[in-house]
Amino acid sequence: MDFTHFTAGKDDSDRRLDRILRRFLSEENLSSIYKLLRKGLVKVNGKKADGNFRISEGDDIQIADFLLSSASKNENPGAEKTSPLSKDIIIFKNESILILNKPYDIPVQPSSSSRGNSLAEIVQKDYEISHKKDSLSFRTGPLHRLDRKTTGLIAFSQNLEGAKWFSEKIKSHEIQKIYLAVLQGKLMEKQVWEDQIEKLENSNEQAGSGNFHTVSVNSSGEGKFAHTEVTPLSQGIFCGKEVTIVRVLITTGRTHQIRSQSAYHGFPLLGDTAYGAVKIDSKRFGQDFFLHASELYFPKDNPLSLPEKITSPLPEFFPTFN
Fold first, then answer.
1. What residue stretches are annotated with the RNA-binding S4 domain (predicted)?
2. What is the C-alpha to C-alpha distance for residues 216 and 218, in angstroms, rounded to an integer?
3. Domain limits at 136?
């Protein structure tokens, strides 16, 4: 019987064999995978192994050829594949972290309507091409959130070390995120907003999407604490409305934090109709929502060799005033 051999990489270490096999045998349930292991149709280093066997870097996983899809068996390892990830939006990349300048109106996470065009799916395809020999099981993914119409810096993991470190530092607030936003109204001085935010019941149904829901600031003190610092940079007129371009620092990462707090304090994000702002014609102005993740700050001398500061340019249609 012929077997196809796969070599475990660093990020496969200490992963269960059955979890790794799910990637290659996606149509098989766990019960079927255990049956294949008992029959010796899947082996590790030439020997039978249980599903809970912990893989080590360099282990040789052998899978009977007839179990694999024709695409897997006929794949030419020497054939070059083109990554779907545009180099134009790559801000930083090393073996641990990938940071992109997210375009307007591109979803980060996949959905029923994204059809393979979400950033998460695109980055995963790029990873499979560029890191093919690094891991059999590791999947890259976004390390923080950006809404579909928000532009700017978004980080993705490239290995387990990067994913764990970045997630820990986000949780401990040691990674600082700065945004630029266009607010409706004339904000004249710096404001610090400290509020409690909670999800609005049934707001996803009202918005017409199971993947979208709004939040609100709860004046009674219930909800999750949110801290936002807003500094005005310039004022101007846009679509006949007074607007202010602001620099926004958030020290907490709540869903729709900037959007909900801005609206609550009387300065909704321009075009953010979900939170009471006027509607902007995207066909006329290029986009109808103006929130840009402009800067990321990292701890000095960090183990991932990230620079202390990473910035991204403003999108083409983001308004500016002198």
1. 15-77
2. 6
3. 87-171
